[in-house]
Amino acid sequence: MKPSTKASISTLLTRYPALSVCEPDLTAAVEALLATYRAGGKLIICGNGGSASDSEHVVGELMKGFLKPRKLGDDMKAKFEAACPESADYFMKNLQGALPALSLVNQISLGTAFANDQAPDLVFAQQILGMGNPEDTLLAISTSGNSTNVIYALDMARAKGLKTIALTGKSGGKIAEKHLAGITIRVPEDETYKIQELHLPVYHMLCIAAEEEFFGE
């Protein structure tokens, strides 16, 4: 981990001192995410309600430039010029380096079909069964730590060998009690909206750290 990447964690804790109790887990989560990207894997995210919105938010920060422009290199330029020369300049001007991320909450056709035909609480697990690989990481978001479909997603991720990070509230619920995730970040709040207010800077930090590691100076 580069010093500037590690500084993303200390900057978060300076801005949100209450999260200092989470520092070891925050560091472990950054290390897991970096290992995933070094291995050519992706981050998979799931959650319900506001946490579903957070899942989409994370994808938006990782799949394009967040704080940095992420200019493409000469290797991609050469590939574009060889494959699609008329588009190459336009691609180089506008496309940005991506950190692969997938939200499980926006698969409307699959999700509704599976919920109707099979079991609604296994919609996330079904997607991980189909798309999860050992080099991937699952970020499972549940303010209560008790969301059944998120718990089943963690079960499936463990079965398929993914690294797992849970983002919960102070109690951690069943996820923490039963040690269902390899890393559990339990932000120090109990009310749902207050938990969500701390989840956002946590996952922003994860995105900033990954971007810094792979696209920073």
Quick description:
The chain has 217 residues and is of the alpha/beta class.
Q: Please give the alpha-carbon distance between the first and last residues.
A: 13 Å
Strand order of the largest sheet: 2-1-3-4-5
Radius of gyration: 18 Å
Helix percentage: 55-70%
Q: Based on DSSP secondary structure assignment, what is the total number of beta strands? A: 5
Structural class: alpha/beta
The CATH fourth-level homologous superfamily of the largest domain = Glucose-6-phosphate isomerase like protein, domain 1
- Tally of helical runs: 10
The ordered string of helix (H) and strand (E) elements is: HHEHHHEHHEHEHEH
Shape: globular
Q: What number of domains?
A: 2
Give the amount of beta strand, in percent.
5-15%
Low-pLDDT windows of residues: none
CATH topology of the largest domain: Rossmann fold
Largest sheet: 5 strands, parallel
CATH top level of the largest domain is Alpha Beta
The CATH architecture assignment of the largest domain turns out to be 3-Layer(aba) Sandwich
Mean pLDDT: 97
What does this structure look like?
The protein is α/β, with parallel strands linked by helices and 217 residues long. It has 2 domains: 3-63 and 98-215, Rossmann fold, CATH 3.40.50.10490; 69-97. It is built from 10 helices and 5 strands, in the order ααβαααβααβαβαβα. A 5-stranded parallel sheet has the order 2-1-3-4-5, sandwiched between helices. Helix 9 links the parallel strand 4 (163-168) and strand 5. The longest helix has 24 residues, at 192-215. The model has no long low-confidence stretch (mean pLDDT 97).
